Amino acid sequence: MNTEDTQIPAEENNETLYERKVFLIDKHQEPIRIDKWLQMRLENATRNKIQKGIEAGFLTVNGKIVKSNYKIKPGDEIVLLSYNNPEYTEVKAESIPLNIVYEDKAIMVINKTANMVVHPGIGNYTGTLLNGVKYHLLQQNAGLNEDELPRYGLVHRIDKNTTGLIVLAKTANAAAHLAKQFFHHTVKRKYVALVWGNIEADEGTIHAHIARHQQHRKMFAAYPEGDMGKHAITHYRVLERFNYVTLVECVLETGRTHQIRVHMKHIGHTLFNDFEYGGNKILKGTIYARYKQFIDNCFIICNRCALHAKTLGFVHPVTGKEVLFESDLPTDMEQVIEKWRIYIQHKNISD
């Protein structure tokens, strides 16, 4: 038997936690059950886990769902969505308060607070959103484990300091359904951000590939020529102007890690108080001490990157109907925005 596989590597800079693997079956392949064939090629994959993944819909052959006893044949194209987390850490159940805005038997939508990491990893083994989600789900099903529901339904993530909406699956079938939507960029997501500078155009679109920064590996960078990274598209619309900062709405067409932060910095409008990308210092404004004190006060109120995941829309994995969720701006961003309104009003009066 001579089998040659063509595999598409995972997208490193992606918000989704599932990678897409494609296998093209060689013309010399002998018939063999697909679950057995995958077990020989996937590291640390048990037959039972593979069968549950196939049953849930994480795998298609020539675009169609198959059963575990399907026998592969020459020319088949196998597409597999598998969980990818290089910082895999066992999830410990913890009783952590969660702001659940919607929940049914298939999904739950959570409004994440600031300064909360989404899933355990190096340096953050406890206190994450997923620790709380596992505890919550175990209250409903004490026998639930990661073989039945990979990573307890987590299919995408948002940054630690970003607030807003995130959806999780409560069944493996729902996880597969949602993972495909995120992979194909059909999920509707709108963010609200406060950025440095006065954006001249009322709206626009940013096209620039995104890849890890060459010097700072925890950061990402924009590559507008497309010579590195993965393609990324962000649409923006100005909501309100405050001379030195601008309130914008950002719509993601793709979902790369740090996409809004990187794209806005790329066009010269770094997010307000984004310390990783240089937004935690005065980038626009006056040299007066009073202005510096005003900015310091704003940083104290909103001691994080001023970014909120406001809107989340997707097709419900059970009903097949589109659902849309909205969340209000968090208090820290609201207070800073109001401070800017008052500051600009007083400045205009004095001028």
Write the layout of secondary structure elements.
Blueprint (H helix, E strand, L loop, with lengths): L17 E7 L7 E2 H6 L7 H10 L2 E3 L9 E2 L4 E7 L16 E4 L3 E6 L16 H12 L22 E7 L2 H12 L4 E9 L6 E5 L1 E4 L7 E4 L9 E9 L3 E8 L6 H8 L22 H13 L5 E9 L6 E5 L4 H20 L1
Helix pairs in contact: 2-4
Radius of gyration: 23 Å
Mean pLDDT: 89
DSSP summary, beta strand count? 16
Helix content: 10-25%
In whole angstroms, how far apart are the ends? 82 Å
Output the helix-strand order.
EEHHEEEEEHEHEEEEEEHHEEH
Major β-sheet annotation: 9 strands, mixed
By oligomeric state, this entry counts as single chain
**Low-confidence parts:** 1-12
Q: Provide the structure class.
A: alpha+beta
The fraction of residues assigned to DSSP E strands is 25-35%
Number of helical regions: 7
Shape verdict: elongated
Describe this structure in words.
It contains 7 helices and 16 strands. Strands 6, 7, 8, 9, 10, 13, 14, 15 and 16 form a 9-stranded mixed sheet that branches. A 3-stranded antiparallel sheet has the order 1-5-3. Strands 2-4 form a two-stranded antiparallel sheet. A hairpin with a 6-residue loop joins strand 15 and strand 16.
